[in-house]
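User: Predict the structure for this protein chain, please.
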Amino acid sequence: MNGLPDRAASGPARAAAAAGALMLAACATVPPDAGKNPRDPYERVNRQVYAFNDKLDRYLLKPLAQGYEFIVPRAFRTCINSGFANMGEIRNAINDILQAKPAGAATDTGRLVINSTLGVAGCFDIATRMGLEARHEDFGLTLARWGVGTGPYIVLPVLGPSDLRDGVGLVPDSFANPISYILPVSARYTVYGVYLVDFRAELLDATKLLEQAALDPYQFTRDAYFQRRTSLQYEGNPPPAPMEDESGESGPGANGAKGGVQPAPGDQR
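Assistant: Here is the predicted structure, written as structure tokens:
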């Protein structure tokens, strides 16, 4: 396995077995009307995966993130977080090019160059101070730009909420991630681990809000996911939501559903 000794190669197998056991233990309460939402036809399965992710987070990721936040000084955490965000500028710029957004590509490339040099490998976000605001692009948004609908909502193990289009987009995006090319492989997994813990630490406050405000955390997370992705697709200016017919189904083109995707106002750049 990538030249690793057999003993090291058995590590992922043991991790997969542990994850499988946790998955079996994560039994979610499924409402009787699960699956009737046309955007979430696989809700019964999704809720089980959500329950697995919740237990994994509750007993592993969240405690690690809290320990990380307690031990690592804020200045170092900010540096680490900014460094990972700087790596994401490569993905942003590539997807801007694929979406024919030259201004966005110029902004993201400028941020990458400035923060990688003046910002000491991304530790400091100098570009924002210079007026180059952070943006977000990924291949899921590129597919939306090309007219591909969202497909059904899905919950991915560990990775969390997604839809079919964005899930597919994770594959090409992985090739734009510098971490994917770190060698040896053990170092790559270590960096991924730090990224995951750092990312989880950034969401600690949001977790408190979710626990306090949501009667159904699964539904709250699903709705918030669609709202955020729609906002990103239309760069903060989404079209009005379509009216529902008597069957409760939305018209074509809603939030990237089947039908042509309308260009965002910011796309004409």
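Residues 22 and 56 are 8 Å apart (CA to CA).
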